[in-house]
Amino acid sequence: MRWFLVLALTVIGCRSYQDDVETICNAEEHLRDVDKLDYQAAGHARKATILMSAIERKVKTDEGKKLFTTIGAAAPAAKFELLRTEAAKSGLTVCPFADFLEKGGSALPPIDPKPPAPPMSASVSAHPKDLSVLRILDTKVVGKLAPEPISRIVRANFPKLRACYEEGLNRDDSMKGTLYVKLTITAAGAVQNVAVAEGTLQDVTVRKCIVAAYQSLTFPLPESGKAQVTSSIEYRRAD
After folding, report:
1. pTM confidence score
2. Of all residues in the chain, what percent are helix, strand and coil, respectively (each to 5)?
3. Domains by residue range for the chain, with CATH
4. How far apart (Å, rounded) are the C-alpha atoms in residues 137 and 19?
5. Phi, psi of 221 (to 5 degrees)
6. b/e burial code for range 126-156 (CB count within 10 A of at least 16 → b)
7. Tens digits of per-residue pLDDT, 68-84?
C-alpha cells in the first residue's frame, strides 16, 4: 500500500502547467462520452460551455486553474489571445480551442460583455454612431511579455476607452489629445499601479475614467516576474 501511495503522489506531482495548457488547447479530446451527443447537437455558445466544463475537470495545477479562470473572465475578443499567448510560451504551435474561441465561442459569460474586436489595424475608423477615433501610438513593455498581445487587447477594448472620451466630448466638442497610461502586470496576472504618466488630453474626468477602464482589462501573464507597460493612444473627434 505504501509503495502505491508514493507512486500516486509521484504521478500527481509530475503534472505541469504546460500539460494543463495543452489540455485546454485540446479541450474537445477530453469530453466525456455522456457529453459528446449534446456537444454535437449544440450551438457555438453551448459547445463552449461544455468544453469549459471538460477543461475544469482536467486542469490540475494552480497556474492552470488560474489560466482557466482568467480566460473565463476575459472579454470575448481577448479570450483567444490569452490562450494563444500561453500556448506559444508552452511550445505549442497549434491550439484548437483558441481557434474555436476566435470564431465566436464565448467560453464563459464575460464580466462586461462588449462588441467584437474591430479590425486589427493601427487605427479604428469611426462608424456613424461613433463621435471619436482612437489610434494606438505605441505600446512599450519592460519585462518578459510581448507588446503585440497588449496592443490587441487594448484595441479590442476601445469601446470602453471611447465611452470615456466621448463623455468628455459631450462637454467640450474641441477636446482631443494623447494619453500615456502606465501599468504593472504582476506574475499572477493582476493589473496594478495604473496611472496617466503624461499626455495632452488634460480633462481630469476623462483621465480617471480611462484609468478605470485599463484597470478592468485582462492581459496575458508575463513569462516571469512583473511587466511594466506604457500604452499610448491618440483621441480625436471623428471628421
Report:
1. 0.53
2. 50, 20, 35
3. 2-102 (no CATH), 123-237 (3.30.1150)
4. 37
5. -75, 140
6. beeebebbbbbeebebeeebbeebbbbbbbb
7. 888 877 777 688 888 88
